[in-house]
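ingest -> validate -> predict -> emit
validate: passed (alphabet ok, no gaps, 309 aa)
predict: started
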Amino acid sequence: MAKKKVVVALGHKALGTTLPEQKSAVKKTAAIIADLVEAGAELVITHSNAPQVGMIHTAMNEFGKVHSDYTAVPMSVCSAMSQGYIGYDIQNAIRAELLRRGIFKPVSTIITQVTVDPYDDAFHEPVKVIGRVLTEEEAELEEQKGNYVTKVEGGYRRIVAAPKPQDVVEIDAIRTLSDAGQIVIACGGGGIPVLEQQASLNGASAVIEKDLVSGKLAELLDAEELLILTSVEKVSLNYQSDKEEKIEKMDVETAKKYMQENQFGASTMLPKVEAAVSFVEKKAGRKAVITSIDRAKDGFLGKTGTVIE
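emit:
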């Protein structure tokens, strides 16, 4: 069977929200991943982390308030912690599922840093909401620290930037393990956003879109396919209207046209289509598929999903 290098991006549905939900969800996800392995995919896996990193951020900062010897924890550290414990659950679930099927294939998680541009306009227009609801007094304290907040129902919440990914710091390690036949879990939650400052990498107060990093990772690995798994089987035009139309296939120019027409939600489908287009247009012969996690194998085999090539 011919093998194909595929970067698979797992969305929220693959992981759940709470710890018990995650334990249950990753077992189902592991079976889906094993199906892809049996179908001939050499996998590198990325995943979301929004509920998890929010939980860690809230917990660590509340702990710091109660215990004066501890300080608030930066977003970069929260991201690293989320990558570790999500990767731990995913890799163990995949390993167990593969062994049950008589497949021995190592699975590794790499805590991944992703460089961002300090001059990215996103740092001046933060949009990603994180953490719990704050009182007005707490919000003022955050602003005094140089952080951004936004008014929400019941109070205020902190917001951070979502800059574009520039490079994956650990790409050589990811490539080496993947080329050795391992399943690699990397760039979790979009990766830890870092700024290059001479020889140092310093964490940025930001989050990176998981789908955009997935496209960048697929590009750097020269993967043949980017498989983005979400909650819908196909991308739609005029989504959730009486004129909704499922898209089976788009070329790059058509996808760009639809993006200019604002056909895709800015925080939902748009980053997925952007990632697909960016990956596909940089080299002939590449393919991106967007489909539901429940139809992952069929999407890989070309039986469903929205194809961009």
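The mean pLDDT is 92.
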